[in-house]
Amino acid sequence: MKKLAPVFTLFALFLLLGACKSDFNYYYYSKEETEVLSQFLNLPELPDDYTVTFPSHLSNVGLFPRAVERDKAVLGRVIFYDKKLSKDGTVACANCHKQELAFSDDKAFSDGVYDRSTTRNSIALGSVANFSAYYGTDLNGSSAIRFFWDNRAETAAIQSRGSMTNEKEMDMTMHDIATTVEAQPYYAPLFKKAFGSTTVTDELVLEAVANFVNAMGSFQSDFDAEANQSTASYSGNFGNTVYDNDFSGFSAAQNRGKKLYNNNCASCHSGNMGRPVLQLANNGLESNPTDLGVGGITGLNEQKGSFKVPTLRNIALTAPYMHDGRFANLNEVLDFYNTGIQNHPFLHADLKTGNQPKHMNFSESDKTDMIAFLNTLSDEHLLDDKKFSNPFKQ
Amino acid sequence: MRPFILIFAGFLLLAAGCVQYHYSPNFVQTPYVVKKGDGMVTAAISGSPVALNGDFHASYSPIKYGTVMLNYFQAHSSFTENNFLGGPSYLQTTKGYLVEGAVGAYKPFSFGTAALYVGWGQGQMRNDYGINRIADLGLQRFFVQPTFTYKNDWFRLGIGLRFVRLNFPSGNIDYRIEPADVVIIQRLEKESPFWFPEMGGNIGIHFKPVTISANLVIMATRPAAEYSFDASNIGVGLSLELQELFKKRNRNSVIEE
C-alpha cells in the first residue's frame, strides 16, 4: 500500500487545484461584432432580459403578457432610438416617446421632421399593459386592444409603421427604412442575432420594434404592490370588487381617491389597471368635434368623436392629457369631468345623467385624493431602466 | 438471443437524446481482479432517456492487493429541432467525454473481492444548440468507490457505490442558447462542485475469457433535471479478462510446441 501513497497524494492535489479554478465565459457578440457595435452603441456585453412579468393580481385573473424575444427587443431598442430612420435625420420613435416621461411627450403635439408638428398627443407607451398582451393575441395577429387614438392599428408593428411613414412624424417609406437600416454597419450583427441573417426587410424592422415596445411593462407601481397583497388570499376571477377594499399600505387620502376612481372612472378605465373595460368612448370633449377619432377611420356615425380609452398606468407622468393634449395637468382633467363634459348624441352612457352630461361634482379634497391615488399608478423604475434607454453614443 | 438484442438495440435508439445535458454518469466499473497480474478490459454501449454513450475500461493489478484503473467515457446525443426563426430545422447535439484514472486496494475472498477505489478525471461536455450556439463546459470528477464483486466460472456480479465530487471549473457559453439553459449553467457555475453518490453495477455471463454483461448506473440523490444532468445509464458490455486470455494462449502455445 505504501507504493500507492504518492498516487493518493497526487489525487488530493488535483482535488485542491480543481476547487480553486472557475473560469466561465459567457459571450454574445463575437470580437468583430463587438468592434463594430462599440463604435456606435453602448450595449451591454450580454443582452438584457426583456421578459415581461405581470403582477400576480393581473395574472390571477387571466391577463398575461405576450412573450418578448430578447434578441429582437435588443435590435428594436436601437431602431427605436435611431434618428437616421427619419427623412431629415432628426427624429426617432424616442423623440415622441421619451423614457423619462414613461415614453410619452410633454408637448400636446410632438415635433416631427422638418419642424412639422403631429396632430395628436403622443400616447405613453409605458402606460399600456403590454400592448398586445390580452387574451392570447399575438404580435402579428389581431389585438383586442388597438393602437393610436383612433384605434386604426391592429398590432404594435402596424402602429410603428404608421409613425415611421407619417409625413408629420418620420416621413419615411418602409423601403427607405429598410435601406437605411441595411446601410448602417451596427445593424448587421443585431439582425444576425435576432433573425439569424443580416437580410433586412421592413417586416423584420417592425417586428423588432414591436418586441421592444411590448417589453415596456410598468408594473412596479405602489398600486400593483398593494393590489398583489390585497388579492393574495383570493383565487379565481375576483373581478373589481377586491379593488374596492382599502389597501393597507395606502394613505387614507389614497384609499379615498381609489374609491372615487372606482365609482366614477373604473367602468371605462378598469379597476385593476389591466385591460381597459372599453376600447373606445366619446367622453364629451366637444359637442361638435372637428377630430372625428375612431369614427374618422370607420366612418360610423356613432363612433364620431370617440377615441381610445387608455389604461391609466403612469398617468401622473404623461401630461398633457387627451388625444389633443388640451389639459395640462390632472386637476384640469378632473375639472373637465366635474363640469365640462359636452353633450353629444353618442356621449358615453356612463357620462350622462338622463339626456344631459353628467357633473361629477368632485370637491377640492376629492380631487386631491384622486390625484393622490393616480400618483400610485406610476412606475418610476421604467423611467431609468437602462435596457430601455438610448443605446447610441452621444 | 437475437430478439433480445433487437429489442435492446431498439430501446437504445429510442432512448437516445432529445434534450441537452451537462453531465452523464459512466458505468461504475468493478474490476474482477483477485491477484497480482490480473487485468481486464471492457467496452460497453449505454443509453438513457437522453443519450447514447460508449464506455471503455481497463484495469490491472500490478501489485498484490492493488489495482490501477483507466476509464474513458464518451457521451453523445442528437436530435432535430424546428427552427424558431422559421427557416429549416437544425440539428442539436450533445457530445462529451471523461477520462479518469483510479487506484484501488482489494481484499480477495473465495467468492470475489471487496475493494476501494479512489479516482480523478476530467472531461468536457459540449452542447450545440444549432446555428452555431454552443455551450462548452469543462468538468472534473473525483470519486471514492467501494465495490464488491462475485465471480465463478460462468457468472459475474459487481456492484459499487461511487461517491462523486463533480466540479465544473470552466465554461464557454454562447449567450444566445435558450435562456432557461443559461440559467441552468449559471447555477452549475455557482453551485459547483457537487457531492453526490452514484450506484451501479453489472451482471454478466462468463465464457472464458469473455464476459457479456448488463450494466446500470443511477445517480442516487441529485435532482438531475435542475442541472440538466443525465441521471442514469443502462447498457451492455463486453469484457475480456486478460489473465484468462493469456493463460489460454500460453496453453495453446504449449500444445503447439
How do the strands and helices of this protein lay out in sequence?
The complex is a heterodimer of chains A (394) and B (257).
Chain A: H1 5-20, E1 23-27, H2 31-40, H3 56-59, H4 70-81, H5 93-96, H6 156-165, H7 174-183, H8 187-195, H9 202-214, H10 222-231, H11 241-244, H12 252-264, H13 266-269, E2 280-281, H14 294-298, E3 307-308, H15 330-340, E4 352-353, E5 356-357, H16 364-375
Antiparallel strand pairs in A: 2-3, 4-5
Helix pairs in contact in A: 4-8, 4-9, 6-9, 12-16
Chain B: H1 2-15, E1 39-48, E2 51-63, E3 66-81, E4 90-108, E5 112-128, E6 134-151, E7 155-174, H2 179-191, E8 194-207, E9 210-219, E10 232-241, H3 242-256
Antiparallel strand pairs in B: 1-2, 1-10, 2-3, 3-4, 4-5, 5-6, 6-7, 7-8, 8-9, 9-10
Keywords:
heterodimer; A: 394 residues; mainly alpha; Cytochrome Bc1 Complex, Chain D, domain 2; two-stranded antiparallel sheet; 16 helices; 37% helix; B: 257 residues; alpha+beta; Lipocalin; ten-stranded antiparallel beta barrel; 3 helices
